[in-house]
Amino acid sequence: MTSAPSPFVRAALDAAAALPGTGIAWLDAARRENLDAFAAGGLPESREEAWKYTPLRALAQRGLALADREAAAALAVDAARLALPGVDGDRVVFVDGTFRADLSSLTGATGVSLEPLAAALARNPEPLRFALANRYRHGAADAFAHLNAGLAVDGLVLRVADGVAATKPVHVVHASSGTQPDTSWHVRLLIEVGKDASVDVIEHYVTLGDAKQLGTVVSDIVVRENGRLGFVLLQDASSATTLVRRNHARLDAGAAATVHALELGGALVRHELQAELNGDGARFDSRGVFALAGRQHVDTQLEVRHQARDTSSDALWRGIADGRSRGVFRGAIVVAEGADGTDASLSNKNLLLSGQAEIDTKPELEIYADEVKAAHGATIGQLDERSLFYLRSRGIPLVQARSLLTLAFCRAALESLPNEALRDHLGELLVAHLPTGPAAE
Amino acid sequence: MHMLKIDNLHARVEGKEILKGLSLDVRPGEVHAIMGPNGAGKSTLGNVLAGRDGYEVTQGSVEFAGRDLLALEPEERAAVGVFLAFQYPVEIPGVNNTYFLRAALNAQRKFRGEDELDSMRFLKLVREKLKVMQISDELLHRAVNEGFSGGEKKRNEIFQMAVLEPKLAILDETDSGLDIDALKQVAEGVNALRSPDRSFVIVTHYQRLLDYIQPDFVHVLAGGRIVESGDKDLALKLEEQGYAWLAEKHPELRKADLAGEPA
After folding, report:
1. Nearest to A352 by CA among A323, A378, A324, A321
2. Collapsed DSSP state (helix, strand, coil) of residue B134
């Protein structure tokens, strides 16, 4: 980058300079390198293909300090507000990126270990080296990964030992306090599901106050041979919150991961969901819904890489945009050379509820193998007038008819979530977010 | 006392005048059959009465139970007691049939200031009506009309009518596309719902439905208005002689109005 660094970049580098060292040489080196890369590349501009539909000009002008850790640790939080139906296992809470032991329980179970990142590093940093010493190589497109690697102090290490089936889901809450205006916070998650092990994880985003903040979360996920991961993402932040998240999953032979995502809130939200199917027979399924209104901007970037034989992936995503909101969905399936027997499908359907909303959807297929079954499709449409009239002719008011049809449109994406209580709750949250009045034209 | 009073109704669809001065009086408990050639405006009448978008009333009035029906939204018309059985019931994937029907009934009850039915009371009501309609309760668990056969869709319309208990039911070519067994089942359902304070307007292209539902009055709709009214013998005459004889009585009708060809 030849021009002067933006206020955003300057403030982030200033914040990094003030952070104490970790005392672990390789980790400090990795942080420095990532921050150098961030300083060199700056924030991505729209000429970067991966950021084409998500402009960051406004964010670049905001100089954000790091959220104050003492204030975050002291903030009174009503734990009941964080609870989710059907989710009764350990809960790990971060407020403005600061781990809150008082709001968390890390009892785990036999073979399930939950450790705050700082504690895990203090105990034995070496097993974390592979993930934390990672250098992201895509220049500005990786700006937030660089930033997160340079600035995240807290995080979580979740490990499920070989052969262990965790019976209770792990609930990870990322709360933006909304009490520290113009600050940022950063969290790093490391999840490892052992051979023949299984676990369910819920990643849950909320906002507690009104102040504008930015949060970044990077999760590194590994599912070992024949392991199974169920992952639920519920993003219910306020319209003051900007979130940039990356979930990167690597699946070994026979491993399976299923993601259900519901994006409801946020001002500017970016979610990068990346899966590498590295072992034969691995499977990655993703389902998601975004429901946007007002001036929300939510960008989902799904990338599935089939890199071994007989791997399969199925992606089913639905988007709804009302008001002046903008939804972006890019779904890329890459089938590497030699990944014969791959079976991949991707469907992305979208509903525009207002003339001023916008949805950009871009399915991509890159296939370098021979024997491959791949299907993808994307549509953008409106509510069916005939169905609306049919419902109204039976007495259902227009607003309710619209909401019923919109929910029906999303149903396919959420109905496969096995946790019934949680599934019902997600449905209710979705209904509550659907427009309650005639489309704002 | 009129249930429905349509006076000199003119209506346009996509800029084209389809109804051209239609008048019809229906009193409580009466069954009126409206027959006519293709393109006469039969389906337009049902859609105008139910309040479908795109049907523009340019002249005339419709009074229903003392109200100006045309001033009401489609859902309000349903709540005051107007029911349209669709010629082509819409499939709505993702919306459960039972859920839909309960939402509809409760929305109507709420509009009328009645208490809403909880699921227990609703299921009891549904079971009673299922018996009358001889519908398998398996249909209830499916999405609205999704994957239903033609006969199942039409029976589902009559079943909805049984649950919603309208004051006025308009059947828009409910008999079209039905085999004789399905036709009989639909007719039995309608007959079971006849009552002194419920009226029916049965729009049909064929006389055969009227073998099973005895109408009090039969009207011929041609050229956008009712040109002939009588009792069920009129339907038999139409069955035997077609519509061409009406041209002598009504020289103002064009040949095309009676042949069912587009004007």
Report:
1. A321
2. coil
Rg, Å, chain A Cα set = 21
Show pLDDT as tens, one digit a residue, over chain B (263 residues). Answer: 789 999 999 999 999 999 999 999 999 999 999 999 888 888 999 999 999 999 999 999 999 999 999 999 999 999 999 999 999 999 999 899 999 999 999 999 999 999 999 999 999 999 888 887 777 778 888 999 999 988 889 999 999 999 999 999 999 999 888 889 889 988 998 999 999 999 999 999 888 899 999 999 999 999 999 999 999 999 988 888 888 888 888 887 877 677 654 33
Please tell me if residue A411 touches chain B, with a CB cutoff of 8 Å: yes
The torsion angles phi and psi of B141, rounded to 5 degrees, stand at -85, -5
Select from A185, A189, A287 the least CA-distant residue to A246.
A189
* Helices within B29-96 (DSSP H only): 42-50, 74-80
Which position has the token pair 């299984």?
A198
A187 and A219 in contact (C-beta within 8 Å)? no
Question: Which residues of chain B neighbour A394 with C-beta distances below 8 Å?
Answer: 75, 78, 100-101, 104, 160, 164
- Pairs of residues, one from chain A and one from chain B, whose beta carbons lie less than 8 Å apart: 78
A400 in contact with chain B, both atoms CB, cutoff 8 A: yes
The CA distance from A233 to the nearest CA of chain B, in Å, is: 23
Q: What are the tokens at A416?
A: 């496969």
The pLDDT tens digits for A211-228 are 999 999 999 999 999 999
First to last CA, chain B: 37
| Residue of A394, A400, A405 for testing the chain B interface, max B β-carbons within 10 Å | A394
The pTM score is: 0.86
All residues of chain B having their beta carbon less than 8 Å from the beta carbon of residue A411 are: 94
Structure tokens at A101: 């032991």
Q: Do B100 and A404 touch (CB under 8 A)?
A: yes
**All residues at 6 or more sequence positions from A248 whose CB lies less than 8 Å from its CB, including other chains:** A218, A219, A220, A221, A272, A274, A275, A276
Q: Judge: A389–B74 Cβ closer than 8 Å, yes or no.
A: yes
Decide: A344 and A286 in contact? Cβ < 8 Å: no
Q: How many residues in total does chain B contain?
A: 263
d(CA B171, CA B173): 6
Q: B75 — contact with chain A (CB < 8 Å)?
A: yes
Q: Which two tokens stand for residue B209?
A: 């439905």
* Secondary structure of residue B107 in the 3-state scheme: helix
Nearest Cβ partner for A395 among B89, B94, B107: B107
* A439 has a chain B CB within 8 A of its CB: no
Q: Burial, A29: exposed, middle or buried (Cβ in 10 Å; 0-12, 13-18, 19+)?
A: exposed
Q: Indicate the angle between helix axes A385-393 and A398-414, nearest 10 degrees.
A: 120
Is the ipTM value over 0.90, yes or no?
Answer: yes
Q: Which DSSP state fits B212?
A: T
Q: Which residues of B touch A390 (CB under 8 A)?
A: 86, 89-90, 92, 144
